[in-house]
């Protein structure tokens, strides 16, 4: 636990140093695309670690000066499958963004959607030495949260305090400076597969870059796609990516649950490729321009030309109806949404005061998906787009870039996490997070 605490603090210091120099890169490693944004920080408030990300709309302490995307290679289910191909794709995206920004970046903050995340809710409480809550008391109550044995192959990705209670008053976001006798805390811990994180770290190092931060794609997508009221009252963000679908639940402006469904838009494309017997590239084009989730009476007469280059004239000049295409796509879309519904039910989403569901990611652009999702997931479903960020190119403002934009907000205004507080050495618990130190110890 000591090594984890110190290495995460070192990560935060590296991020602060990069921001003090004024430039840091954002790297979204996805299954369908790899996006890189170069951020320039200006103004007196370059690094603010205590305000969280609750009210970022309208703030402009940074601007995007370089942006590039490339087709992802060597990534399956949000995890690196072929190291050399992924390294080449990351280098391509980073070099293009650096060329646009006309400067070199050394530090990147990355996010990924795989690694089978798991959420844990921890709690702890202490008696206050003095009547006024100090930052040292917050550090002590966080250290008192006793974590379960995550397993030797799991690493802690996020550890955020989500609620404080002082005596009989609960629901506090920040108890510092208030008067009481007993302080309690609820903390959300998100763990991920250690091997997947090690592969990502090694791949970034092979690209001659330093990792200054790491985040879950489901978390940063929720940051950028949920409006302030949704984060406060309770909402779920469903990020339909290429290889995975991320699920995150927010309340009181904090994430309280995250999970991943290992199905995404690439599986819909593969179904079209098999059903229509066309190459994957052509199936992706057909899905993008003619796909849908709900068939209507007109779709039987709406014919789609399938132009091939196999040399067989009859086969290369086929036509299929849009209703047939939707019949191929809909079962897979329903399977993804039903798996998401199972994750939300397991998390107790129906007990939240507001049950808003926001669909984002590249896969949510399929026509009719929101109507189908409202029947499977619940009535309050809307399509979400990321917040507008200063300097972001128009081509990167769509829902497919929710993770990249959320990572910008995560970099500029990180929420308080467990390692942001000066933990007294005598307060380290014997068991908490002991298993989570190996990856950080080996790499920092």
Automatic annotation (TrEMBL):
GO terms for cellular component: cell division site; cytoplasmic side of plasma membrane. It comes from the Bacteria. CDD domains: ASKHA_NBD_FtsA. It is a peripheral membrane protein. The keyword DNA repair does not apply. Transmembrane segments: none annotated. SUPFAM superfamilies: Actin-like ATPase domain (SSF53067). InterPro entries: ATPase_NBD, Cell_div_FtsA, FtsA/MreB, SHS2_FtsA. It holds the Pfam family SHS2_FTSA. One of its GO terms (biological process) is FtsZ-dependent cytokinesis. Residues 24-225 form the SHS2 domain. Keywords: Cell cycle, Cell division, Cell membrane, Membrane. Its main location: membrane. SMART domains: FtsA. It is found in: Cell membrane. NCBIfam families: ftsA. Belongs to the FtsA/MreB family. Self-interacts. Interacts with FtsZ. Cell division protein that is involved in the assembly of the Z ring. May serve as a membrane anchor for the Z ring. This is Cell division protein FtsA. The lineage of its organism: Bacteria, Pseudomonadati, Pseudomonadota, Alphaproteobacteria, Rhodobacterales. The gene is ftsA.
